[in-house]
Write a structure and sequence with these properties.
Length: 324
């Protein structure tokens, strides 16, 4: 039985002919994402802003506006009430009264009383509380983790390859992060520690994908000394296409299942990962390689002086037995 091949052995797709359209799309996505972050902002969870997050399951569908008015009447500040999961499942987020655990417990007890009095049969599924001080520390450390991860990636690729590759990888990763954050600003999905974990995972996946392609680009720069950079990049992408398709498709299938039928508690994580895999694969093929073209990287950029051996210069595939 012959093995299934999603990508033919001798695939020859001119990926770089779409690089100008990819540049326009990248700029549009980044600008739109920055605008959304500036004017709409992120819907920070209690991990980053502090407060109480109470999940309630009602016996029957309720009016969200009516419940919000009752919660705000408690006097603890503006609350956020939204459905999640089923039609009878509601998440209530309200500020923590202060850093006193006793005050937090009393606020929860008052809210429980209001719900039980006005909505018979309602059941409080879970209660989470994070103080403002702790949430501020979590946000700061999460932002530092993302920043240091991207900086470490750039430094690693700089030493592993050359500085042009490091800049290309850093800009491609920055696009991945900005577009993912813009998606969260657009949808107003809760941005919490699970999302930070998803972003760090996206950085790891995207970096791995870019290193595979960059390594093949560097190898081909040494093999094909007279090949132009655009066809050389196409060759490198096509040679690693089977690995890219199999890896991305496997992850997308698993994450799509988690998004559609997975538990609500990891919905944001799964959706962020799914979007990040798609955007990361796109940036590996177009953004990172496009930066190399902008920097005029070519076969002569990093290669040592030509050997005097006859046949040292190549324009096409070589047989390793012919090498000195």
């Amino acid at each position: 039985m012959r093995p299934l091949k999603l990508v033919p052995d001798n695939v020859n797709i001119d990926w770089m002919r779409w690089r100008h359209w990819a540049t326009v799309l990248t700029i549009a996505m980044v600008v739109a994402s920055i605008a959304l972050l500036a004017f709409r902002g992120l819907n920070f969870g209690i991990d980053f802003v502090g407060g109480q997050n109470i999940r309630v399951t009602f016996a029957q569908p309720i009016a969200i506006d009516d419940l919000r008015e009752r919660v705000d009447a408690l006097g603890y500040g503006e609350s956020t009430v939204q459905q999640f999961g089923g039609a009878n499942d509601v998440a209530i987020r309200m500020p923590v009264p202060d850093d006193d655990a006793g005050a937090t417990a009393r606020a929860t007890a008052r809210l429980r009383g209001v719900i039980e009095q006005n909505y018979p049969g309602a059941r409080i599924a879970s209660v989470e509380a994070v103080s403002g001080k702790v949430s501020g520390e979590l946000f700061q450390k999460g932002a530092m983790a993302l920043g240091f991860a991207m900086l470490a990636v750039a430094i690693y690729i700089w030493f592993r390859f050359e500085w042009q590759f490091g800049v290309g990888a850093l800009l491609a990763l920055a696009q991945d992060m900005v577009v993912t954050l813009g998606f969260f600003a657009l949808t107003q999905l809760e941005f919490n520690l699970n999302t930070i974990a998803a972003l760090l995972t996206i950085i790891g996946y995207s970096l791995n994908d870019k290193i595979v392609i960059f390594d093949r680009v560097r190898e081909n720069l040494r093999k094909y000394r007279k090949m132009e950079i655009v066809p050389l990049l196409n060759l490198s992408i096509n040679e690693t296409l089977a690995r890219t398709v199999m890896t991305s498709l496997t992850l997308i299938t698993a994450l799509a299942a988690l998004v559609l039928i997975g538990p609500d508690v990891i919905f944001g994580f799964s959706l962020a990962m799914l979007l990040g895999i798609v955007v990361g694969t796109y940036s590996s093929m177009f953004v990172g390689n496009g930066i190399l073209i902008q920097f005029k990287v070519g076969p002569g950029s990093f290669a040592p002086p030509q050997s005097a051996v006859s046949g040292a210069e190549r324009t096409g595939p070589v047989d390793f037995k012919d090498l000195p």
